[in-house]
Design brief:
The chain is an alpha+beta fold. About 60% of the residues lie in helices and about 5% in strands.
Length: about 425
């Protein structure tokens, strides 16, 4: 999409610009005056803005530990939607998220044997009391239901009953819960979603621990519940490691662009503040950070690095003629104020359209990008420039080459 946008901007759009002479000088003058007034307002408050952004990152830092990286299935839909009402109705009546665990005996004996069957029945009762388990269906319930339905069932063993229940006469119902050799059995859970306080994988680990204590081996795990837990773990891992690698790459890019350690470190610090602020605000508000909204911080960082690289180029231009570092970076801020804020307004207004979405994850995605875009713009203009500004004696300006005098070449030719 980005490549196509660049291709259209440089190939198609110029043709429309040449159709008619631009007649927006008055508009341009109004816009420039607007940005000048904004700059005149914010520039004297640059240290206040610096402290406000750093303060926001510091205050919200403890809330990063409370980020909801494994949100409930219900949080993906609007609280007023029919889907949410249906999910809550099902969840309150036995759980609404399926989890499947396949177990086998640690001794290798059939699970339908007397000792294993008794332990499975005790395991059934124990797992049903777990707060995150809504309903559990397993082989012992199937056998007990078969015995309850016939007064002659006491004459037959569990193995025999399961073989009959695995036949076509009973729609092979037993095959969904135990293998033909009766050495592996399936536990089918309906897990509670509403009110869950622990990570799904932590809940699954607790259930597996209870199974192992009874002498069984839970060697297979599946279902939507486990899938969502693994997805959220990968999202959290990619968020942490991805941001770390991204900041390291940008540190190298900053050093190559500026050839100054101070500037590179200032850029890396300014970029690192952006995701801290965005994710910290998400943690304070208690918003779910699902796989859709998680990449928002990366997009905000990309906006920040773009602005900072342009500021580095501008500083190199002013460095040749300005000896005072404070004045130099003031000129950089003044020059880059309009393009950085224009980019901020365009991106923020573009992603603000997600606020009108009926899908909460996209609303949160748009909100985080808008917040991150605003923070990245002010972080680039103020935090980066103030940190990159060296403290000390003014450097020597490069002398400007005097323009050649008229007919100087003719004079040299005559003298020779």
């Amino acid at each position: 999409g980005t490549l196509i946008a660049f291709a259209v901007a440089y190939s198609v759009y110029p043709a429309f610009l040449s159709l008619k002479r631009p007649s927006h000088e008055k508009t341009d003058l109004f816009v420039r005056n607007f940005y000048k007034r904004l700059f005149s307002f914010f520039e004297p408050c640059r240290w206040i803005i610096f402290g406000a952004i750093i303060g926001l990152a510091v205050v919200t830092l403890p809330y990063l530990k409370t980020l909801n990286l494994d949100p409930s299935l219900i949080s993906f839909f609007s609280p007023k939607s029919e889907i949410t009402a249906g999910l809550k109705h099902i969840d309150a009546r036995g759980g609404g998220n399926p989890l499947v665990i396949v177990i086998k005996s640690g001794t290798g004996e059939p699970l339908s044997s007397g000792a294993n069957f008794k332990k499975m029945r005790e395991l059934q009762d124990q797992l049903e009391t777990h707060p995150d388990v809504g309903t559990l269906l397993s082989m012992p319930l199937l056998v007990e239901e078969a015995r309850r339905g016939s007064s002659w069932s006491f004459l037959f063993s569990n193995q025999t009953l399961l073989k009959w229940l695995a036949s076509a006469k009973y729609d092979s119902i037993a095959r969904g819960f135990i293998t033909d050799d009766q050495k592996s059995a399936l536990l089918f859970f309906r897990m509670n979603e509403e009110g869950r306080k622990k990570h799904r994988l932590e809940v699954v680990a607790q259930i597996k621990s209870l199974i192992e204590k009874k002498g069984f081996d839970p060697y297979l795990t599946g279902g939507i519940y486990a899938l969502q837990g693994n997805l959220s773990r990968h999202v959290a891992g990619s968020l942490v490691h991805g941001l770390r690698q991204l900041l390291f790459v940008f540190l190298i890019i900053a050093f190559i662009a500026s050839l100054k350690v101070r500037t590179a470190l200032a850029m890396s610090f300014s970029l690192g503040v952006i995701p801290l602020c965005v994710l910290g605000v998400v943690g304070v508000l208690g918003l779910p950070l699902d796989m859709i909204a998680a990449p928002a911080a990366n997009i905000a960082i990309s906006m920040g690095i773009d602005a900072m690289l342009h500021m580095v180029n501008a500083s190199r231009h002013f460095f040749k003629h300005e000896t005072n570092a404070s004045v130099l970076w003031h000129k950089v801020r003044e020059r880059m104020w309009e393009p950085v804020l224009t980019s901020m307004f365009i991106v923020a207004s573009g992603f603000a359209i997600f606020f009108f979405s009926s899908f909460p994850p996209t609303q949160r995605f748009g909100g985080q990008i808008v917040l991150g875009t605003v923070i990245s713009a002010f972080s680039a203009i103020f935090i980066f420039s103030l940190l990159a500004q060296p403290r000390g004696k003014p450097h020597k300006a490069h002398p400007r080459a005097a323009p050649p005098a008229p007919f100087s070449r003719l004079a040299k030719f005559r003298d020779s």
